[in-house]
Amino acid sequence: MPKVLVRAITENTVKVLNQFPSQNGISKNLSLLTIMTGLPLPDYNSMTLELGTYCQIYEANDPTNTQHTQSTAAIALTPTGN
Amino acid sequence: MSLVTGARLSRKQWDVLPMPQGVIARVEQMGLDQGQPLMIGGMPVFEWAPGIAIIDDVNDNIDFDIEEDDLPDDETNDENEDDNFQGTRKFLPLLHLMKTIQMTSYITTKMPKSTQNTTITLTTKVMIYCTLAQTTVQQTTMTMVFLLRMLRMLTMTMTATMVFLLRIMFPQNFSLIPKNFFRLYHQVIPILPRNKGAMMITQTAHLQALLSTLGARHVLTLTRLHTVWMTQLRQKATMPKCFRLTTMICGTVTRILDHHKAVMSKCFRLPLMISTALVAP
């Protein structure tokens, strides 16, 4: 498995775990993510792509009619939050 | 992650597509190119710390639910206690050795070839000792896993075929081979590289199967074979050499079994019968 993918899987797992309140945490209603960053409950808009999904991503080119491909094959990793 | 460059990209527009086999193969190839290890069991290896494996206790799988009727009489117990104690004491050094080898197995993949060869020598010796000492199923299986991690580039097709045939021909002796041995085949086969078109296992596993099947009479011969093998491996520790050595060892082991010619001919008669039946109109 590529290093980038291993890193993304770990990052995604930790991120998902932190989105929910911990059983032994200081709060039963607020997640660790909310406590530390102030972000709200899980944002389902950022969960549209599952990790490992195969997709074609579009390159931000100017309008052109050349023969060059305008999309790239890629594997979805974690949302960047932007 | 781009499938072309392997770099991490950030884009805002995408189209989700069904996963073709080519993408899976490409990701596997990228992992191999980056020198990433194969994941045994299809999942990451969990360790207490890098190089320190989580090893189950030897007594974890012992079934303590023994009915009273199954227990022998007290007099027999008294007689057997000494034997059991002696047997346990005999195995203790082996247990420690096995644990040490399992601990080092996670480190040796990063070692130079010469160090790996030394470890392989040690492990093969332990395998022979374990066979002689009739060690437990769990230890044998764990050693097998270790060997597979170390020598995952060696072909297994012949071994699987041989074990299957021997299982038919020696049903009473084959009960000596632990069940986990076969379970291990099924666990390991799916994760091995398919580009070789073959299932994989080590020569040592092959010898272990033969040894368990035929008894310990051929230990000396097999040990001599092992010495020859290791000498050649030290000289040129390349994988093509290993393939050739595997074939050589298989051929030599077959020659050892000359006095089992009748049995072996039956082994080869079975696939012949099957093929004849299939070809017949």
Structure described in brief:
The complex is a heterodimer of chains A (82) and B (281). Chain A is an alpha+beta fold and 82 residues long.
Describe the protein's architecture and organization.
The complex is a heterodimer of chains A (82) and B (281). Chain A is α+β, with helices and mostly antiparallel strands and 82 residues long. Chain A has one domain. Chain A contains 2 helices and 2 strands. Chain A has a two-stranded antiparallel sheet with strand order 1-2. The longest helix of chain A is centred in the N-terminal third of the chain and has 16 residues, at 3-18. Chain B is mainly α and 281 residues long. Chain B has a domain at 89-279. Chain B has 11 helices and 3 strands. In chain B, helix 3 (113-133) packs antiparallel against helix 9 (219-235) and helix 5 packs parallel to helix 8. The longest helix of chain B has 35 residues, at 74-108. Residues 58-91, 101-112, 132-138, 151-161, 172-182, 184-204, 213-220 and 236-240 of chain B have low confidence and may be disordered. Chains A and B meet through helix 1, strand 1 and strand 2 of A and strand 1 and helix 1 of B.
Key attributes of the depicted protein:
heterodimer; A: 82 residues; alpha+beta; 2 helices; 2 strands; 27% helix; elongated; B: mainly alpha; two-stranded antiparallel ribbon; 11 helices; globular
